Amino acid sequence: MHCEMILDEYRERLPLYRKIREVVLGQLQQTLKENGMVVTGIEGRVKTEKSLSGKLELKGTKYRTIDDITDIVGVRIITFFSDEVDKIAALVEKLFDIDWDNSVDKRKMLEIDRFGYMSLHYICRIPAALYSDAEHPEMNQIRFEVQMRTALQHVWANMQHDTGYKSEVEIPIEHQRSLNRLAGILELADEQFSRIRKEINDYRRNVQSLVASGNFDEVPLDGDTFRSYCELRPFQRLAEKIATINQAELYEDSPMPYYKILLRLNMKTIGDVERMRAECSEGAYQLALIQLAGTGLDIVAYSVALQNLCIVKILKMGYGTAGLIHMFEAIYGESDYNATRAERIYQQAVRSNLITTNP
């Protein structure tokens, strides 16, 4: 009789529960977006009558009224990394009123001799300052649950559910041990993913500092360091000088496609790129004089400076037209025109005395 009364209240409140789910999901999605938090998933549900009935059969005496059941409305946020769970939790704390007495951090409840399901569960209310409905003031009193876990924790929780792994009595010890070992692997992977990401972020901050300080020989050449180097606008002066040949407008584009060319030229550090810039700038400008002479071109791409630097470097290293063709294929893709372009530039380089021999 008591359980049936609770189910009657549930049926009456069902539209309200659905509205709470909608509001909570909307507020969380907006907050995550505003704070630049990317998660692998966010989902919400209202417990079905069948599910609630089953819960009441098992634990009905625990609940005096329907308000004692705090997870009829539930939202789950799944993050990529374990350290993001606490960041998400901080946002949830700012957004909703937290019932701390009934919230639980299952990450801190694991027994010392086993791995298991880990998740952070907050029991919350919607504060009136965030959202209110004059016709349904009880929306600010009804509690709901927000679960926060990583993708791997989510995998483990689903595996527990699917295997019916709930107690040591229910499955044989050998299967129990296998599941615990698998949980340990997932937990270790979670920790390692977060550690590796932290080390990568630390590395990026360090190389950005080295690049900004001008210690270029200490900075290995990779995608991140080259991007940081390009942010210093190292080719600006040469690009502007080339643009003035025709009094052209300088068009902004990215030098990043030339990163792979620099690697092919056996450059190991940002210092190597700097030395190429110093040694080849005059040749790159002289080549541009011939390229632009009589063209009337009034727009010049910023990356033309780096392109001409690479051309001069390729020719000085004796790679000839074959080297130029490889460069154009890497930048523009395979095309019969690459050979024509390479031959024309080679002849231009000869006329500008950058090289004196035939290919």
Task: Tell me what the structure shows.
With 359 residues, this protein is α/β, with parallel strands linked by helices. Helices cover 55% and strands 10% of the residues. It has 2 domains: 150 residues, Beta Polymerase, domain 2 (2-Layer Sandwich); 125 residues, no CATH class. Strands 1, 2, 3, 4, 5 and 6 form a 6-stranded mixed β-sheet that branches. A two-stranded parallel ribbon has the order 7-8. About 3% of the residues have low confidence.
By DSSP, the count of extended strands is: 8
Percent in strands? 5-15%
Q: What's the CATH topology label of the largest domain?
A: Beta Polymerase, domain 2
Low-confidence stretches: 112-116, 165-169
Q: Per CATH, which architecture of the largest domain?
A: 2-Layer Sandwich
Which features would summarize this protein structure in a list?
single chain; 359 residues; alpha/beta; Beta Polymerase, domain 2; 2 domains; six-stranded mixed beta sheet; two-stranded parallel sheet; 12 helices; 8 strands; elongated
Write the layout of secondary structure elements.
Blueprint: H1 2-34, E1 41-46, H2 49-59, E2 73-79, H3 82-95, E3 97-98, E4 104-105, E5 120-125, E6 144-150, H4 151-163, H5 173-213, H6 223-230, H7 236-243, E7 249-251, H8 259-264, H9 270-292, E8 299-301, H10 304-316, H11 320-332, H12 337-351
Parallel strand pairs: 2-6, 7-8
Antiparallel strand pairs: 1-2, 3-5, 4-5, 5-6
